[in-house]
Amino acid sequence: MEPPTWEPLAAAGRAGVATADITPPEGILARNWGAADRDTAAGVHRPLRATALAIGPAEGADERGPYRYLVSADLGWWRSAADERRVRSAVITALGCDPADLLIHLVHTHSGPTLSAASPELTGADLVPPYLELLADRIADVCRRAAAAAVPATATFGTARCDVAVDRALVVDGRDVVAFNPGAAADDTMLLGRITARTGESVATMINYACHPTTLGWQPPLISPDWIGAARELVEDETGAPCLILQGASGELSPREQYGDTELTDRVGRAIGHSALSGLTAMPPPGSRLALDEVIESGTALGLWSPQPAAPPRTLRSTRRTVGLQARPEPSPEELQHRHAGINPTAAAERLRRAALVRTGYVTGDVAEHPLWLWQWGDAIIVAQPGEPYSWLQTELRRRHPGRAIFVLNCTNSPGFVYLPPADVYERDVYQVWQSEVLAGSLERLADAADDVIRSWAQPS
């Protein structure tokens, strides 16, 4: 009888990583909060960065490519599909890659530059177009350098627990407020990837955690990656390798304390970073599994597990799907006036600017065409899309596929910069419902579409 074994979820192939500074110029438009009293940032808390992971075929295949490029950028969110498409198209052209093989993921910091110049009356809007051109050049360059640095490597996947993220739907005097709700549970799962070269050197770390980067408030507005900066710094100092922070399905999740200052931001980041280091420390050596190789009689029978070499799977593939979602009818001017009645005029104007852009290139008639990207690398599945789904998306896909390391990414590529709450949330008059351009059932439909692809990849070819 073969002894019992346990093998961590893993992958093998070629992998390389590179980083680039993407801090915007002083004076650029940075209006991300309706409550802010100015259009531009007052300074820089931490520089912004783009980190690219290039994943290539394993040995024995054509080692020149194709590479898949996953870019984690310290940016907030796109305001228009046209601006995002110009940047991503320029990168695709420069790399000569398939469109399905490039994921430009934004960590969703609320303290970055405004990625749209659609409101030229705002101070600093004139600096946005040249910044977007610079961004495309920097992302293309960092992807090239990541591919050039690629080496034979093994990725090991695991989880940690982090209770920084909480439910942020609090009812106060009958009104839904975006704040910590002590009475609701929150997903505390952190998914980790440790990529190690055959030589034993660390190549990169992946951290997929769902928690809005909203620790840094709006007064004074500062350029910052938010908690991502301190978390990444802590992990990189310990591992000696670049770290990609990947924002999970965090539509309803935020830090317990938020809207504060840089001390709070860095404290929250360090807490998240320490959780990641805990999970990384618990991982077995790369390219190994555990086997029960001896039973020793003591006060009871003691089983001794020992590491053995293992060959991680090398599958590497990607696809893009379009999921048709039922679109919300466009609100009338009267409805918009009622929705924003009685609030700060500056905040109301900011909400209207966002709403005017989000439907273009996304909604046609009564259908919203929501894009979905899926990658498989060994035992890992990356599920990426541009919206802000609630955490149900990641918990449900992980429940359906317990034998996979499922990374769920918000704010990736475009179009579809909308919230995707579960159907039951639509029964309440909350911000995430009336901000969205899609109706109840959309999140569940998106999960089923991702599930279909994952199941099809599990079938024998």
Q: Which terms would index this structure?
A:
five-stranded mixed beta sheet, 461 residues, eight-stranded mixed beta sheet, alpha+beta, 9 helices
Strand order of the largest sheet: 5-4-3-2-6-10-11-12
Q: Could you list the spans in which at least 5 consecutive residues all have pLDDT below 50?
A: none
Strand proportion: 25-35%
Instruction: Count the E strands.
Output: 22
Helix-strand makeup class: alpha+beta
Largest sheet: 8 strands, mixed
Number of helices: 9
| Average pLDDT over all residues | 93
Shape: globular
Global Rg: 22 Å
User: What is the CA-CA span between the terminal residues?
Assistant: 30 Å
How many separate structural domains? 1
- Provide the helix percentage: 25-40%
Describe, in plain words, how this protein is organized in 3D.
There is one protein chain. The chain is an alpha+beta fold and 461 residues long. The chain has one domain (5-285, 313-458). Helix content is 26%, strand content 30%. The chain has helices at 81-95, 128-148, 227-239, 262-281, 333-339, 345-358, 392-400, 431-434, 442-458, and strands spanning 5-6, 10-21, 49-56, 68-73, 102-106, 151-161, 165-167, 169-172, 175-178, 189-197, 202-209, 243-247, 253-255, 288-297, 301-309, 316-326, 363-364, 367-377, 380-384, 388-389, 405-409, 419-420. Strands 5-4-3-2-6-10-11-12 form an eight-stranded mixed beta sheet. Strands 16, 17, 18, 19 and 21 form a five-stranded mixed beta sheet that branches. Strands 1-14-15 form a three-stranded antiparallel beta sheet, with no helix packed on it. Strand 10 and strand 11 form a beta hairpin. Helix 1 (81-95) packs parallel to helix 2 and helix 7 (392-400) runs parallel beside helix 9 (442-458). It is globular, with a radius of gyration of 22 Å. The mean pLDDT is 93.
